[in-house]
Amino acid sequence: MAKGKKQFAVIGLGRFGSSVAQYLAKMGYEVLAVDESQERVQDMANVVTHAVSADSTDEEALKALGIRNLDVVVVAIGQDIQASILTTLILKDLGVPKIIVKAQNELHGKVLSKIGADKVVFPERDMGLRVAHHLISPNIIEHIELSPDYSIVELQVPSNMAGKTLRELDFRVRFGCNVMAIKHGGEKMDVTPRADKPLQRADVLVIVGNNGQLLQLEQAYANL
Ligand code: ATP
């Protein structure tokens, strides 16, 4: 593979892995896609730079693929937790600089962090949380997860909030959440919002807080 741009490998071509591989390839990156299933490899053959069938729990097989020379390896094996852990361990031993692993549950995630995964992702859990935020409040524009327990949400000011000030709304005491900034339509953003200025319908609040408390706040102001 030519040097220059970052080079990736994706191991496990289920829905998540193949989607990661596909987007990286679309963005012009070189991607090595690996799966033990011939059929899955075949499906990716025309999409990525190299698609190879191999068992990633076989150290020799990974060595032969030259995986240690790549910058980032994504392990997207979900169901077979043992294979996911073994693969991560082997990649760590081979000295892969950055290993990102999809976890099936919290415990799996904990083990992966302990054995040296650089980043552990929980796509199903995260998407579930996003959907919950959107279902509870149609006014949620953006949701950024900071940690498993804390997020930033962008909330379009609903009608039952408009005209009130941050002091009156008292989010800190009522929901333990903080309004970090207020967007006044378009590009203008106030990063030191005043407590005594009435909110407008067109404003967007940028709020940081605990996921549970954010959901409660969204529920309390769930009308349009
Ligand atoms: P998704 O939800 O993203 O579809 P999943 O969490 O259900 O995926 P699996 O289907 O368990 O994940 O695994 C994804 C892929 O990983 C499968 O195509 C499977 O063939 C492959 N896989 C599992 N174990 C290994 C292994 N040891 N070596 C290589 N590939 C493997």
How would you describe this structure to a colleague?
Pfam families: TrkA_C (PF02080), TrkA_N (PF02254). One of its GO terms (biological process) is potassium ion transport. This is TrkA family potassium uptake protein. Residues 5-121 form the RCK N-terminal domain. The protein has 224 residues and is an alpha/beta fold. The chain folds into two domains: 7-121, NAD(P)-binding Rossmann-like Domain (Rossmann fold); 126-220, Alpha-Beta Plaits, CATH 3.30.70.1450. Helices cover 36% and strands 25% of the residues. It is built from nine helices and eleven strands. It has helices spanning 15-26, 38-44, 59-64, 81-94, 106-114, 123-136, 166-169, 171-175, 211-220; strands at residues 7-11, 30-35, 50-53, 72-75, 98-102, 119-121, 140-145, 150-156, 178-184, 189-190, 203-210. The chain has a six-stranded parallel sheet, with helices on both faces. Strands 7-8-11-9-10 form a five-stranded antiparallel sheet. α5 links the parallel β5 (98-102) and β6 (119-121). The mean pLDDT is 93. Bound molecules: adenosine-5'-triphosphate. The site of adenosine-5'-triphosphate (ATP) has 21 residues, from α1 and β2.
